């Protein structure tokens, strides 16, 4: 699960609900061998080009060089437009819209072109809560159940570990991300309360609140409803009066306003214009803003809450936004991860505070360095993930090239308190983000081993990539790749000793040990399953030909070849319908439909035919079938049953995508 994103932060597409090929959740198990071979091939090829790329790479030294580099990224990625904002403590350094805001109408982007900033909107929820806390009207430590008992959620640990306001903002409630019915909801007239009442089933804690972090868009939405109830205003009105207006962000809005209709950039998905999406959890990602407005937002943070001599929020409140506090790792001293509507992002030893976002086909990256008083914003009107990542990297290269190199942290950290060493072996993630009722674990877990006090971590997604961590305190380890202490050993109330690692896209990942027998048993099961399926289908044409020629007798000799193929047909039907439903905007998966019901029935049929194939294969053992035919058939039938039981355990069998 932990791949190169740990060290090369990507923009968080947190509220995007992109058209994920949900069928891959099952199909990725089939592609395991292919993935490993392709990864190895890419690594071998990379040795031949990496030196050349390094020689050609040039860090932009001027705004004009940066501008040309960004235009080149837009061209290479097919991204129509980008809004770019660079700011320091004195004000804007560069604000410009690049490219075409609307290709069909040939409208160029400018500094007043409005883009959708997606989950970057969450920062305003945190600002509102903190402002109300400063006024003594609520506290981050307040119980959500006491403040808004009318909002439905389920927390099995509520009596001992209630969900607090800060858990909503740090995504430590243990809730799923919003489910498909919420994701496809698109009614502009839905109130915040109606949106929260629409499908509360996603708000069920899967672990003890305040221990692990997993992104959940309904958390900030519930916090925004608390703002409504405490302030007596709609959330959007509260933000407009207390932040947008004082900041001077005249056109910032949560709605499809007249300004947006006139100045909004067309959003392009796969090169085609995309319709406007009205979010059911509006506070979590609906803000529309121009590069000019984003400059005001950056100034609010780098000037530590002060706007034109008016202190909108205190500096201590901003520091709390920048400080993860509620995971087990944060409580034990881990300072990196997701705070309140912001998260830490490493770049070459510099720690940016940021939030990224995606809604529809609009993407954003809002980042700043408070100690240096600089920040930037990037907004694009395309679903191309690489574009905004590359532009963000270019800007960070430009900004940090003019800064003094940060002092290595490891030498300045005390090693007091002794050394807590993790258990060596294999680990897998126990805080997955879920939007569907199931989440299959990765076939390739993390591998951790020790040499003296040094931890070595091998990342499965990149064969051969090994990262070293050295101890800097009790349970805390310094990452020699990111040059910061972002790895800690903690105790989880459900899993026992776990590892928490910061820097994974928008937050932290929690890893629990898994026995090697399970790891290699799972891998062996799927590899053998795929191989035996391939063998069966490879020989099928020859069997059919021989049967046609009368060389294979009928009855058991034919049926023993046919029964093991039925489960394969069933699971492929389920995967195809899942993929089709995802490509069609997930509307057919978010409600009972021919597509979603077919998925449910096909997964059930897979389980039933897997059992039936074993029963029939066993019953044919004395029918005089050749061993070369019978043994592969019984092996494949047993493997079907094992995989079916595995899928049943993880919720794939009888999958109701609309639940």
UniProtKB/TrEMBL annotation:
It comes from the Bacteria. Residues 68-387 form the Beta-lactamase-related domain. The keyword Nucleus does not apply. Gene3D superfamilies: DD-peptidase/beta-lactamase superfamily (3.40.710.10). One of its GO terms (molecular function) is hydrolase activity. Keywords: Hydrolase, Membrane, Transmembrane, Transmembrane helix. The keyword Aminoacyl-tRNA synthetase does not apply. InterPro entries: AmpC-like, ATPase_P-typ_TM_dom_sf, Beta-lactam-related, Beta-lactam/transpept-like, Beta-lactam_class-A_AS. The chain crosses the membrane at residues 523-546, 558-582, 594-617, 629-649. It holds the Pfam family Beta-lactamase. SUPFAM superfamilies: beta-lactamase/transpeptidase-like, Calcium ATPase, transmembrane domain M. Its EC number is 3.1.1.103. This is Serine hydrolase domain-containing protein. The lineage of its organism: Bacteria, Pseudomonadati, Bacteroidota, Cytophagia, Cytophagales.
């Amino acid at each position: 699960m932990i791949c190169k994103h740990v060290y090369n932060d990507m923009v968080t597409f947190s509220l995007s609900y992109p058209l994920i090929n949900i069928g891959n959740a099952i199909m990725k198990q089939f592609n395991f061998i292919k993935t490993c071979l392709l990864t190895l091939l890419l690594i071998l090829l990379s040795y031949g080009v990496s030196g050349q790329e390094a020689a050609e790479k040039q860090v932009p030294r001027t705004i004009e060089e940066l501008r040309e580099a960004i235009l080149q990224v837009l061209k290479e990625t097919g991204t129509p437009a980008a809004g770019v904002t660079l700011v320091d403590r004195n004000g804007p350094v560069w604000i410009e819209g690049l490219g075409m805001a609307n290709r069909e109408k040939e409208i160029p982007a400018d500094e007043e072109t409005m883009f959708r900033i997606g989950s970057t909107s969450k920062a305003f929820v945190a600002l509102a809560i903190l402002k109300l806390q400063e006024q003594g009207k609520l506290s981050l430590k307040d119980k959500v159940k006491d403040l808004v008992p009318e909002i439905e959620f389920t927390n099995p640990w509520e009596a001992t570990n209630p969900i607090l306001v800060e858990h909503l903002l740090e995504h430590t409630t243990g809730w799923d991300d919003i489910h498909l019915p919420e994701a496809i909801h698109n009614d502009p007239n839905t109130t915040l309360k109606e949106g929260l009442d629409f499908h509360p089933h996603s708000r069920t804690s899967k672990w003890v609140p305040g221990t692990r972090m997993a992104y959940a868009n309904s958390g900030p939405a519930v916090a925004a409803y608390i703002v409504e109830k405490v302030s007596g205003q709609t959330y959007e009105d509260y933000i407009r009066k207390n932040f947008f207006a004082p900041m001077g962000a005249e056109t910032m809005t949560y709605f499809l306003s007249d300004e947006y209709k006139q100045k909004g950039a067309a959003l392009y998905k796969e090169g085609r214009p995309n319709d406007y999406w009205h979010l059911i959890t509006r506070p979590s990602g609906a803000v529309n803003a121009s590069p000019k407005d984003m400059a005001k937002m950056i100034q609010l943070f780098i000037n530590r809450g002060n706007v034109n001599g008016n202190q909108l929020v205190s500096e201590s409140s901003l520091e709390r936004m920048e400080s993860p506090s509620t995971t087990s790792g944060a409580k034990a001293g881990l300072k990196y991860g997701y705070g309140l509507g912001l998260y830490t992002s490493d770049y070459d030893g510099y720690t940016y505070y940021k939030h990224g976002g995606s809604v529809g086909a609009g993407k954003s990256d809002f980042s700043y360095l408070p100690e240096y008083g600089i920040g930037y914003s990037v907004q694009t009107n395309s679903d191309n993930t690489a574009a905004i990542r590359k532009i963000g990297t270019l800007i960070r290269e430009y900004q940090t090239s003019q800064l003094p190199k940060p002092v290595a942290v490891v030498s300045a950290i005390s090693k007091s308190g002794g050394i807590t060493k993790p258990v060596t072996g294999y680990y897998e993630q126990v805080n997955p983000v879920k939007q569907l009722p199931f989440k299959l674990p990765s076939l390739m877990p993390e591998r951790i081993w020790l040499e003296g006090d040094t931890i070595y971590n091998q990342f499965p997604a990149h064969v051969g990539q090994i990262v070293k961590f050295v101890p800097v305190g009790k349970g805390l380890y310094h990452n020699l790749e990111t040059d910061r202490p972002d790895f800690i050993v903690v105790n989880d109330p459900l899993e026992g000793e776990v590892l928490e690692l910061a820097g994974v896209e928008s937050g932290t990942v929690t890893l629990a040990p898994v026995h090697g027998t399970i790891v290699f048993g799972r891998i062996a099961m799927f590899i053998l399953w795929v191989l035996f399926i391939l063998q069966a289908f490879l020989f099928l044409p020859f069997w059919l030909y021989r049967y046609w020629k009368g060389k294979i007798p009928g009855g058991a000799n034919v049926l023993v070849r046919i029964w093991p193929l039925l489960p394969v047909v069933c699971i492929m039907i389920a995967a195809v319908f899942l993929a089709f439903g995802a490509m069609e905007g997930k509307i057919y998966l978010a409600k009972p439909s021919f597509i979603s019901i077919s998925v449910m029935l096909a997964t059930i049929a897979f389980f039933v035919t897997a059992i039936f194939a074993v029963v029939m294969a066993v019953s044919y053992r004395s029918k005089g079938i050749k061993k070369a035919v019978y043994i592969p058939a019984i092996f494949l039938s047993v493997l079907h049953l094992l995989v079916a039981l595995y899928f049943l355990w993880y919720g794939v069998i009888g999958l109701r995508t609309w639940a």
